[in-house]
Design brief:
Helix content is about 30%, strand content about 20%. It has about 110 residues and is α/β, with parallel strands linked by helices. The protein has one domain. A four-stranded mixed sheet has the order 1-2-3-4, sandwiched between helices. Strand 3 and strand 4 form a beta hairpin. The protein starts with 13 loop residues before the first strand and ends with a helix.
């Protein structure tokens, strides 16, 4: 895991999509990584999807599929990142939380 985790901000923005049923990359790892990366200055958006695992998050019927196309187009069009975390709850409601790059990681991970 350490070899696959950036230890400094990358020059390009990131979209981190996490399936909440993922048993390969556990959601807690993403929830720990996101605030640390933001605090270090990484531009990113984080989205999670209830009921999706490591493979089903990229399946054709996944909501991420269309979102990823739009997110990529927005980067080419230089649309600013939203600085919002979008999390899909088990009852399929979207919960949005504003991110602060200056927030301490413990304040984001709740």
């Amino acid at each position: 895991m350490a070899q696959n985790t950036p230890n400094r901000p990358l020059p390009q923005p990131l979209l981190i999509a996490q399936g909440l049923a993922d048993d390969l990359v556990l959601p807690r790892f993403s929830r720990d990584f996101v605030p640390r990366a933001l605090h270090a200055g990484q531009e990113l958006e984080y989205r999670s999807y209830a009921g999706r695992d490591h493979l089903s998050i990229v399946a054709p019927d996944s909501p991420l599929t269309q979102e990823l196309v739009q997110w990529t187009q927005d980067r080419f069009d230089r649309v600013p990142l939203s600085r919002v975390v979008t999390e899909e709850t088990p009852n399929n409601r979207l919960q949005r939380t504003a991110l602060s790059a200056r927030a301490e990681p413990e304040r984001y991970v709740g």
